[in-house]
Design goal:
Blueprint: H1 2-14, E1 65-67, E2 70-83, E3 96-109, E4 115-127, E5 135-149, E6 152-164, E7 183-196, E8 200-213, E9 228-240, E10 245-258, E11 267-280, E12 284-297, E13 305-319, E14 322-333, E15 342-357, E16 360-374, E17 379-394, E18 397-410, E19 415-426
Antiparallel strand pairs: 1-2, 2-3, 2-19, 3-4, 4-5, 5-6, 6-7, 7-8, 8-9, 9-10, 10-11, 11-12, 12-13, 13-14, 14-15, 15-16, 16-17, 17-18, 18-19
Length: 428
């Protein structure tokens, strides 16, 4: 606990961040601290353009439910997915159909100052042929914000989630021997703050996360080696030169400790970022930063990780009805196996959204992910292509269908998978 206490004190000194834990409810109200003063960030307004999948039309889009002083977004998701390769293997491929039901809710107060709220979600997946793959997941989060002043706010959240690991993820157990998906629990807390003036924004965050993995019958190693406690501290600053441009910079410190003393997989590191945030009259909006990562594994036999890279998220609006997206990122993650201590991940891709009708939006995405494992020198290249359509029948019902193709080039685990899905969202 002394480590956590020290990290919390450091977070207060850093003074800000809008990073948030992964949402445990669809369309969460929580995104970190925000301020609403007229002079707090006028140069950072990014509303010249509206993305094709973000247009809002009265009588078509869902309307939040008012519950006294609270506003809630309840959603019921029912879906069916057909996959050609459940275990993501290149031999003896097994197909199946998965039915899922997921009720979720996000609620927040509508007070003029301060805010409290919560997210909650439960999801059950039922495999029609492979009954031992069926599972139920759940998650809950409470959050709040204190408006210290008109241009300074502090927010935070606590989260607990029970999940099954996707086999497309880095640690997901693939192959016919992986009888079940890996179950893990994530418990965390975070505090963040935002200070904003007309041209300056300062953000800071402290996050503490504990992750506990459960063993899987048929997998020849204990998942206990992946149990970990992580502390993340970050500070970011933005200075607006004009309404169109802002200079951004930041630093993030990560300290990841594994609870299994025999694994010797602990690692700590710092990432430095610098770049620009913009919204230009030439129909472009986004943020592009260069970064340098310096990670130091505790195991003296492992080399330090020093790498430069690019983080980018850019939108292009060729018309009011079409939006193109470009994205790129780098990270250092847990390898999820006994042969490697960590993995360097590079992601990039493009997407396209088009509003064919007010009630029908078409989407497509292609992403590429390179995974370099240490110290085994294993390298995986994952490609995921997706096309889909979202049909808004009325304010209470939306139907989404899609096709996804996933392919991995690897000397250890190559595979191809074709997935067709249809989902119905009900908005009470």
């Amino acid at each position: 606990m002394s480590k956590y206490t020290s990290a919390a004190i450091a977070a207060l000194m850093l003074s800000s961040s809008t990073y948030a834990f992964a949402q445990v409810a669809d369309r969460s109200y929580y995104s970190g601290a925000t301020v609403s003063a007229p002079d707090a960030g006028a140069f950072f307004v990014r509303n010249r353009y509206t993305a094709a999948n973000a247009h809002s039309y009265p009588g078509i889009d869902p309307v939040p439910v008012r519950l006294g002083a609270f506003e809630a977004r309840p959603i019921l998701l029912v879906s069916a997915v057909s996959t050609s390769n459940v275990f993501l293997t290149d031999v003896n491929e097994t197909s199946d159909t998965v039915l899922a039901i997921q009720p979720s809710i996000s609620a927040a107060s509508t007070w003029s100052r301060h805010r409290i709220g919560f997210d909650a979600s439960v999801r059950h997946e039922e495999y029609l042929d492979l009954g031992n793959q069926s599972a139920t997941e759940y998650g809950v989060r409470g959050f709040g914000q204190v408006d210290v002043a008109s241009n300074f706010a502090v927010a935070g959240s606590v989260t607990h989630q029970n999940q099954r690991e996707s086999r497309l993820s880095i640690g997901g157990q693939t192959g016919a021997t992986a009888a079940e998906r890996v179950e893990f629990d994530t418990t965390g807390a975070e505090a963040n703050a935002l200070y904003a003036t007309d041209r300056l924004r300062l953000r800071g965050r402290i996050g503490v996360t504990e992750r506990d993995y459960s063993d899987v019958p048929g997998v020849p190693f204990s998942q206990d080696l992946r149990d970990q406690e992580a502390v993340t501290i970050s500070a970011d600053a933005q200075y607006a030169i004009t309404r169109d441009w802002a200079i951004v910079g930041g630093i993030t410190s990560v300290d990841r400790d594994y609870t299994d003393p025999a694994s010797n997989r602990d690692i700590s590191g710092i990432t430095y970022r610098a770049g620009v945030n913009f919204e230009l009259p030439v129909n472009l909006r986004g943020q592009v930063t260069g970064q340098f990562q310096d990670f130091d594994p505790e195991d003296p036999t492992l080399e330090d990780i020093e790498r430069t890279g690019l983080n980018a998220s850019v939108q292009w609006f060729p018309t009011e009805l079409t939006t193109a997206n470009v994205f790129a990122s780098q990270s250092v993650s847990d390898a999820g196996n006994t042969a490697d201590a960590n993995v360097e991940v590079t992601r990039y891709g493009v997407g396209l959204d088009h509003e064919l009708l007010r009630t029908l939006v078409l989407t497509s995405r292609i992403s590429f992910e390179n995974r370099e494992f240490n110290p085994s020198n294993r390298e995986d290249d994952l490609t995921v292509f997706n096309v889909g359509a979202n049909w808004k029948l009325n304010p209470n019902v939306q139907i989404r269908g899609g096709y996804t193709y996933a392919s991995q080039d690897s000397t250890v685990n190559p595979f191809d998978d074709h997935t067709f899905s249809i989902a119905i969202r009900f908005f009470p």
